Amino acid sequence: MKRYYGRFLIAALALIPVALLPQSLAPTPRYSDQAELSKVEGWVLSQGAVESIAPELAAILGVGSDRLPVRLKSYRTSDGISYAFAVSTNPKQEGIVLSALKTIADKMKIYSVGTAWLTDRSGTLRRTIGVDASGARVLPDSSRASEFKNIKAFFVKKLQATAPTTTSSPSPRISATAAGRK
């Protein structure tokens, strides 16, 4: 009897990896936010406003020295900061620019203050820039990494809020004929 159970155990252990093999063949993104960021990119490309990024910012982000044409979704917070998700529409200059900027009107000039990040659909941070009254400068990516993560999550939530909700099963209904038969 022990011999029979021993062989059964060995056979069962041998079949476990074989049974799990089809599950591991399905392509899955490395990170769940990677798939979500791709969805946000598609949403912005299909429904975003046609805009452009100033040549100075495009240059410091490393995406060219001309105006960068983009599709843009932007939301203003209660404290006046504009969160923006911009997707390049120039096939030679691919990239996604996320920003959290506040526009300041100071006597004789108008300028923005905040942070902008260059990423791609994988969500990998490629460049961080700080913007203030004196201009824009490259910052260490680690200096604003948590803020970058928060703004990515903000846009994923905005996309989920705009997506229509569907139920997986229809709600139960009673037909008029069924209700009449009691």
Key attributes of the depicted protein:
single chain; 182 residues; alpha+beta; seven-stranded antiparallel beta sheet
Order of helices and strands: HHEHEEEEEEHH
Shape: globular
DSSP helix fraction: 25-40%
Distance between the termini: 59 Å
Q: What would you say this structure looks like, in words?
A:
The chain is an alpha+beta fold. The protein is built from 5 helices and 7 strands. It has helices spanning 2-24, 32-47, 55-61, 145-162, 176-180; strands at residues 49-53, 68-76, 81-88, 96-106, 109-119, 127-132, 135-139. It has a 7-stranded antiparallel β-sheet with strand order 1-2-3-4-5-6-7. Helix 2 crosses helix 4 (145-162). The relative contact order is 0.12. The model is unreliable at 4-31 and 166-179 (pLDDT under 50).
Chain-wise SSE layout:
Elements: H1 2-24, H2 32-47, E1 49-53, H3 55-61, E2 68-76, E3 81-88, E4 96-106, E5 109-119, E6 127-132, E7 135-139, H4 145-162, H5 176-180
Antiparallel strand pairs: 1-2, 2-3, 3-4, 4-5, 5-6, 6-7
Helix pairs in contact: 2-4
Q: Quick gist of this model?
A:
This protein is 38% helix and 30% strand. The chain contains five helices and seven strands, in the order ααβαββββββαα. It has helices at residues 2-24, 32-47, 55-61, 145-162, 176-180; strands spanning 49-53, 68-76, 81-88, 96-106, 109-119, 127-132, 135-139.
